[in-house]
Amino acid sequence: MPQRIGIFGGSFDPVHLGHLWIAEAAREQLSLDQVRWIPAATSPLKPDGPVASDDHRLQMVRLAISGNPFFVLDDREIARGEVSYTVDTVAEIQKQHPDDELFLIVGSDSLASFDRWHQPSQLLELATLAVIQRGGDAEIDVSILKRFCDDARLQTVKNSVVPMPLIEVSSTDLRRRILGNKSVRYQVPAAVEAFIRSEKPYQ
Ligand SMILES: Nc1ncnc2c1ncn2[C@@H]1O[C@H](COP(=O)(O)OP(=O)(O)OP(=O)(O)O)[C@@H](O)[C@H]1O
Ligand SMILES: O=C(O)c1ccc[n+]([C@@H]2O[C@H](COP(=O)([O-])O)[C@@H](O)[C@H]2O)c1
């Protein structure tokens, strides 16, 4: 029986409760059999790279998703190194799972920058975008994809928007809080908060 696989890429610098909530909402709404969490080595639109080390980000994601049987940590982008183009990652997963259906989970800010992604048409052929509205962002507008796919594909993306409450947590804000010695309690899982306190990935 074909599986429905969610692919969730991010800098996860650090992973936060927004990430966990949207991954779980996508899993539930789209009846996904698994969600693969894929920390980027360097996100193409964040050329300065992440602040925390690859190893620290992997450890924080591992702690965050532990106990959820649907969530899997996939370290292929960090193992590959360099700039992490999502189309390469998704093509590789598609080769390994030729009979399965792939969903790429993204926030509305990622959708809004999609015309600057590498090989957007190819990517839309390989996976369906599952978009989540982000607090503070303009309303989801899938018309940005029009240039890159046909109407049927556009409709599938519209149908795969994941409805959920708006969350305004962001990694950038959390890093600012950590540097300012402010609390990140309840915005990251308790185990991640303890990790940040003991391992100091942002110092
Ligand atoms: N609060 C949120 N609501 C909806 N989507 C989110 C939210 N936070 C992150 N995302 C989405 O999760 C994916 C991975 O996010 P990422 O690791 O870049 O964290 P981030 O909080 O967006 O980081 P930063 O604030 O530093 O840009 C992206 O597609 C992003 O749009
Ligand atoms: O492939 C691309 O061109 C591309 C451009 C921007 C972002 N992405 C991916 O989108 C995910 C979220 O990226 P970011 O910049 O919000 O951390 C992460 O997995 C990135 O590798 C991918």
UniProtKB/TrEMBL annotation:
GO terms for biological process: NAD+ biosynthetic process. PANTHER family: NICOTINATE-NUCLEOTIDE ADENYLYLTRANSFERASE-RELATED (PTHR39321), PHOSPHOPANTETHEINE ADENYLYLTRANSFERASE (PTHR39321:SF3). GO terms for molecular function: ATP binding; nicotinate-nucleotide adenylyltransferase activity. Catalyzes the reversible adenylation of nicotinate mononucleotide (NaMN) to nicotinic acid adenine dinucleotide (NaAD). The keyword Oxidoreductase does not apply. Its EC number is 2.7.7.18. Pathway: Cofactor biosynthesis; NAD(+) biosynthesis; deamido-NAD(+) from nicotinate D-ribonucleotide: step 1/1. NCBIfam families: cyt_tran_rel, nicotinate (nicotinamide) nucleotide adenylyltransferase, PRK00071.1-3. It comes from the Bacteria. This is Probable nicotinate-nucleotide adenylyltransferase. It comes from Rubripirellula obstinata. Keywords: ATP-binding, NAD, Nucleotide-binding, Nucleotidyltransferase, Pyridine nucleotide biosynthesis, Transferase. It catalyses: nicotinate beta-D-ribonucleotide + ATP + H(+) = deamido-NAD(+) + diphosphate. Residues 7-177 form the Cytidyltransferase-like domain. Pfam families: CTP_transf_like. Belongs to the NadD family. HAMAP family: NaMN_adenylyltr (MF_00244).
